[in-house]
């Protein structure tokens, strides 16, 4: 399928990248949101959930925002692939350009905040094997969010390349 | 000063944003690198430095990388402002586009990793006023790195808008 002359990037490629972003983000949210353990140090017992940590809460927020944005853009991309032209023309290309940039930055910060906390929590001496499990799952969620960010950064490169000709 | 026809963004504006990025990053590095306290809980005494935490070490690395990249790009921007044309033509515009994107993402993750750790360290019950000082300085460094990232993201928008016409 040859790309139509109105874009620099084949619309099917743009759609595939959006779908990959969506899949990574949704799995990341599921892993993070279901990450609950009962931690015990022999004396005290406590339930540990992701929302006890600000960094993981922020991570979840960024992933949910990313999912919402990616869904909307996927809808436009599906229209573009099936109809062969864009909704909204060059105005929407501008919105997509800034939207992709902002959302990909937000996803990058979400993954980094999660890693930033996990890595140093991991090096604390208080860890039990339950807590290690918890941190490993949090790291898995952050990794998937990071992969989602990479796809979203790819979308951002695509939408930059699709910008209308400068005057 | 009217912009030459070969760019969408006035070169002086691009240079000013580079310089602002540089200033923010250099202050962030100074604050972070000089952030040392002697923490004491009454029994044990220990010297606390930024490099005891992986997240802060990563933060410093990203800021240093950002400074190096911004210096190089500032040199090109100064040439552009003073001579009125670019070194390297459209090839360099491409490199600038991808370079700006990658470096601004790296700076975003650096700031977020720092915040991700500080915010949750702050909520731990073990804090003394010395440790609060330490975390406040780390937060100040992360904030400046974040502002530096915002300028660097602006550079990235500029370099996207300056991309050569698509064929």
Automatic annotation (TrEMBL), chains A, B:
PANTHER family: CASP-LIKE PROTEIN 4A4 (PTHR33573), CASP-LIKE PROTEIN 4D2 (PTHR33573:SF40)
Location in or out of the cell: Cell membrane
Transmembrane segments: 12-34, 54-81, 141-163
Species assigned in the record: Olea europaea subsp. europaea
Family: Belongs to the Casparian strip membrane proteins (CASP) family.
Subunit record text: Homodimer and heterodimers.
InterPro entries in the record: CASP_dom
Keyword terms: Cell membrane, Membrane, Transmembrane, Transmembrane helix
Name of the featured protein: CASP-like protein
Any one annotated GO CC term: plasma membrane
Cleaved signal peptide residues: none
Residue ranges of domain Casparian strip membrane protein in the record: 12-151
Superkingdom of origin organism: Eukaryota
Membrane topology value: Multi-pass membrane protein
